[in-house]
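Thread: Newbie trying to understand structure tokens

Hi all, I'm a second-year student working on a class project, and my supervisor (Dr. K.) asked me to get a predicted structure for one chain before our next meeting. I've only ever worked with sequences, so writing a 3D structure as a token string is new to me. If someone could post the tokens and maybe explain what I'm looking at, I'd be very grateful. Here's the chain:
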Amino acid sequence: MSIAFLVTTLVVVVTPGTGLVYTLAAGLAGGRRGSVAAAVGCTLAIVPHVLATVTGLAALLHASATAFQVLKYAGVAYLLYMAWATVRDKGAIDLGGEESAPPGSWRVIRRAVLINLLNPKVTIFFLAFLPQFVSPAEPHAVPRMLFLGGVFMLVTLVVFGALGLLAAAVRSQVVSRPRVLTWLRRTFAGSFVALGAKLALTAR
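---
Reply by user tm_fold:
Sure, no problem. This is what the structure looks like when written as tokens:
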């Protein structure tokens, strides 16, 4: 495993995206438990993308315009739903007061998995990313790609978990200020809409 791979992985992981936005929101909504659950869910969602790359399904997705579009717009629809749920203060992101019951861990994990799973760009990214660090002539190319995918998942879990815990640490200050709470709801909702629009406009 090279330094270039680790640096590239870190840059990709910390780049703001749907998973990171959701993890921060989950940390504010459910505290430490919510942030950890979201980080775990986003990390688990990477598994199908890595397996798709290794088994060649990513190449099929890249070649099939219809398959790509279906998955893409399913992801867009879900992001728009997340934006609506945030504004309505229901569903996955309930940034209510301390007396509010935070969303359950399994619910957070399921939503985090769906957010990352319904993004075909993640699969396409792995299709372009992993082969750069594995020689086609290497006798153990598949195990190496699985190993690198595992490293990517570990970095994702650590970074998302740390940032989510940071958000959870300021939760008490946030929920006690209604104006800040309203601003955050709108910000997260706007972020999901923007990310959905970006996904809708991206080509293979």
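A couple of things are worth pointing out once you decode it. Residues 141-169 form the longest helix (29 residues). Residues 17-201 form one domain. Feel free to ask follow-ups in this thread.
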